[in-house]
Amino acid sequence: MKRKVEFVTRELESIQAALHKVAAVPWDQLDEQVKVWARQVRDASYDMEDVLDTFLVRVEGGEPVNRSRLKRAVKKMGGLLGKFKARRDITGAIDGIEKQLQEVADRRARYKIDDIVANPAPATTVDPRLSAYYTKASQLVGIDEPRDKLIEMLSIREGDRSSNEMKIISIVGFGGLGKTTLAKAVYDKVYHQFDCGAFVPVGRNPDPKKVLRDILIDLIDGEDEKPFSDQYNGRNTVPDLMPLDEWQLIIKLRKFIKGKRYCIVIDDIWDEKTWEVIKNAFVDSNPRSRIIATTRNSKVSEEIGKVYRMEKLPESQSRKLLYTRTFGVEEKWPGNNDELAVVSQKILHRCDGVPLAIVTIGSLLAGKQIEEWSNVYDSVGFGHGDDQQVNNMKKILSFSYYDLPCHLRTCMLYLTVYPEDFRINNDDLIYRWIAEGLVQTEEGKEPFKDSKQWSQGSDVRRLALHRAEHIEVNDRDVPKLRSFNAIWCVTDNIPPVSRFKLLRVLSLEGCRPLEGHLDTEYLGKLLHLRYLALLDTPIRELSKKIGHLKFLQTLVFPGTGVEELPTSMKQLTKLMCLIADDKTRVPDWICELTSLAELSMRGADGERCLIKELGKLRNLLPARMLSCNRVLSYIAIISVYCSYSRWYSQSCPSGLILKLFPSSAG
Known about the structure:
The protein is α/β, with parallel strands linked by helices. It contains 23 helices and 15 strands.
């Protein structure tokens, strides 16, 4: 058995490495065979994790499966296999997964997956940012003020004492704010004041040599309208530049700009290394020259030079841009119309002042009756439709997505479990990530650091319902669900908890009534559960069987009316976060929850012994003990024991919020 598990572990590690290579390639550039293979591997990985979890969950003190600790888990399993009656079932499951993984590995070799990933199909679509280079100035809205401010920062106007100094400015902001459009507006306004100029795009995966060549070509073409082949002493043509390396191109660039006053825009820089190469061409050049660079990366912008931060459009300009893109000139705008006012306000709220989003939706609305606007708004909200403008917007925004490391992409995608405009609690989100396995724990580190999971695909492993009146859940998917989130939903949409077999995250908020759907006794059978949140859910009491949830890390139940914690909770030695109801009393055994990092409770008696016990929780982060009658008298005791420097006591008799910084930290 141990040999089989070790084989599966080795295969998973190898395939995970291959999946990281797959994840580095934009989805639309992947071969269909690679996509199929990636989904199969993902499913095999989930299945293996479920088998190991099912096995270890029966072991007293067993650790939940963690990819970064898989080898340790295998070693532990080897010594425990003889102790379980279920060995035969586990053996059969592992045999099946071993066969599944072997087939996937064979398919990887047969279809040369690694070669296909290493040489993805080139993108055939036109760069969606090109339109920003050729947009007419008359079509721009809200550009004048930032353009003039940027020109002022460049100190180009005559009489400005600093105009003789070299100026390098970076424009920074997230995708869709109009960085390229602003840079182009500034360039068009001032380039005639210089001897030569260049406007060169870089992109997420740049070729530094191509960027340097493009700058040189633009500068020469900008100096003289003759064809490039007649320029540069009549000797150099574009083909002549192709074989040159970076250093040779830099030398030619520096030779060309010597003594010239130039204005150059470097558009869309993603990393510092690219900028380091580019700037070498302009060291010690004409001090009266100007360079503008655009980037989405704040760190890169600070490295480049003085920073100009893009801002979203205010509502008035957002509305003007929407109407201009939809109806044309102001004379064609419709008069007072209540329906138009309501739906346009909803659209502008969703666009949130981002010009790219406003222009995209405006292009969809153009030519449509106002009565149809709501349908367009709803369809865009769910990502439907094949409109080219929508596809371009997705493409532009996807650049930022693919610039993230693989594990952070999964963390970002997890945000879709929350409804639109939902206020997300940062700590709660991190605990969910941990429970889902998106953030892993390494030896000697906090569980908020590494993540090693990548997922895309078909089988439903997570399900989120938001104010749903009716939604059908595939019976086939329910036993495989790892995460179930419902926010303000009719409970007829919620499958009975007894149907969940592998659930790791269960979050119900504002779901009433729950008769027949939430059996608190059955909660104790969800042995894989890491995260349990029951907010504004009338359960009144927690089952004694909750102590069976050995892997539970987060327990949240405000608005439930629960007054007491069952003593069986003392067994939850992995519980990191406990956020209770206003009525819940703090038990005297609270210090036995040794992994507790966050505690939020009301109704504590504030007795000296209780405060002292709390002080023994050495992992406790700044805690919130609410309505503690005499906590002020004993807060110093906590400072002696607690390993963190800050404690909060809120809503004490004086209504003060205290911050304590002890000289001793454990």
